[in-house]
UniProtKB/TrEMBL annotation:
Source organism of this protein record: Paenibacillus spongiae
UniProt protein name: PhzF family phenazine biosynthesis protein
UniProt cross-references to Pfam families, sorted A to Z: PhzC-PhzF
Family indicated by similarity: Belongs to the PhzF family.
Matches recorded under NCBIfam families: PhzF_family
InterPro entries reported for this sequence: Phenazine_PhzF-like
UniProt keyword list: Isomerase
């Protein structure tokens, strides 16, 4: 069975920046084991698998090289970009995705593509010793939601220069660790906050740009800065930009994407 696949760089307008995701449109459902093997073959932080259910409605699943995950923003952005670019849906059409985190949607806007995602606020948490030791710092704040730890540190430079002990960080019982600080007004003067995200326990030491992490970051910085709209920069080596808007218990995540490769699975 052949299946079309593309690599799309998400949360960027420039190729080879942002976060690359593989997007595979399946003609019909395939076994979970096959999707996991395919994602391992692609060896990107996420591979998104789409199956058409009806006009503008798709089943969507996300896989890292090691396992299926419950929520992924950049691969959803990449999937929406792929469907519109390949002509599977008309530009003005809203896309609906049935996922493990419920019904998600995507629309084209002046900002590029806007995703409607659930808010995933954190609550204060006691940091495990492995978390503190692996980061090598004393946090200003530690919180946790159902997926990740969120750690606020003392400034943007700390976020940018952080070099975690990945084997030790992988021992923390969580999907990942998000490290964040308010932007300092220098190189990131146009942003409200910066972040980096680490997921060694699921095979991704550092994720270049993480949409789902901003489901926690957006409500956190909304409370801190008292702003309904936020501009964010994920300060990985590739870097990525996100625009965020709080809508009650939902987060509107906006960004752009660019396709860098098209191909097909032949088995």
């Amino acid at each position: 069975m052949t299946a079309a696949i593309s690599i799309v760089d998400a949360f960027t307008a420039e190729p080879f920046r942002g976060n690359p995701a593989a997007v595979c449109l399946l003609p019909q459902e395939r076994e979970t084991s096959w999707m996991q093997l395919a994602a391992s073959e692609m060896n990107l932080s996420e591979t998104a698998f789409l199956v058409k259910k009806a006009d503008g409605i798709y089943g969507l699943r996300w896989f890292t090289p090691l396992q299926e995950v419950d929520l992924c923003g950049h691969a959803t952005l990449a999937a929406a970009h792929y469907l519109w670019e390949q002509g599977h849906c008309v530009p003005e059409q809203q896309l609906l995705f049935h996922t493990r985190s419920g019904l998600l949607s995507a629309v084209r806007t002046a900002e590029g593509i806007t995703l409607d995602f659930p808010s995933e606020p954190v609550t204060p948490a006691v940091a495990p010793e492995e978390l503190i030791q692996s980061l090598g710092l004393i946090p200003r704040y530690v919180g946790r939601n159902r997926m990740d730890y969120l750690v606020e540190v003392d400034g943007e430079d700390t976020v940018r220069t952080l070099r975690p002990d990945m084997p030790l960080l992988a021992r923390v019982e969580t999907r990942g660790v998000i490290v964040t600080a308010r932007a300092d007004g220098g190189t990131s003067g146009s942003y409200d906050f910066v972040s980096r995200a680490f997921f060694p326990s699921i095979g991704i030491n550092e994720d270049p740009v993480t949409g789902s992490a901003h489901c926690a970051l957006a409500p956190y910085w909304h409370r801190r800065l008292r702003k309904e709209e936020l501009s964010a920069y994920q300060a990985s080596a590739r870097g990525g930009e996100l625009l965020l808007r709080i809508e009650g218990e939902r987060i509107q995540i906006s960004g752009t994407a660019v396709t860098v490769m098209n191909g097909q699975f032949i088995r």
